[in-house]
Automatic annotation (TrEMBL):
InterPro entries: Fis1, Fis1_cytosol, Fis1_TPR_C, Fis1_TPR_N, TPR-like_helical_dom_sf, TPR_rpt. This is Mitochondrial fission 1 protein. The C-terminus is required for mitochondrial localization, while the N-terminus is necessary for mitochondrial fission. Belongs to the FIS1 family. The chain crosses the membrane at residues 127-148. It comes from Candida tenuis (strain ATCC 10573 / BCRC 21748 / CBS 615 / JCM 9827 / NBRC 10315 / NRRL Y-1498 / VKM Y-70).
Amino acid sequence: MSNLLYPALKDFEHTIPIERLNVLRNQVESENPDPSAGSLFNYAWGLIKTKGHKYNQEGVEILKELYRKEPDIRKDCLYYLSMGSLKLGDYTSARQYIEELLKIEPDNSQGQAMKNVIEDKITKEGLIGLGIAGGILAVGVGIIGALIRRKR
C-alpha cells in the first residue's frame, strides 16, 4: 500500500509506541467507572494504531460500542472501525463500515482512499487465494496422474 497512491492514508501504516498507548489507557482508567467518550475514542484509536491482533480487536470492540452510544462521533468511529477491520483482515466488515461512512459523507477523501485500499486488498487476497487453490489443484492432478501411470 503506497502512500503515494493514497496520500490521505499516510498514517495507516504508522504505529504508536506502547508507551503512548499506556498513556491513553491510564486516562481511561483515571475516569473509571464512567470514562468520557473522548477518552475511550482516543484509547480505541491507539489500540487500532498499535501492532498486534489483540490490541486491534479490542479497539474495534470499543469503537463498536461508541458507535452505538455516541451519535456525535459516529463518522469517526466508522472510519477507524474500517481501518481496524482492515488490519484484522476482516475485509467484509471494513468495506461495510467505509461504505456507511461514504453514504453520510460521499466526498470524504480519506474514506474514498480507504475504500480503494480495501478493494485492492480484496482483489489481491482473492488472486492469492486463486493461486493457492490452483497450486493445490495442480498437485492433486499430478498425484492422480502418477497413481494412474503406476497402476498401468
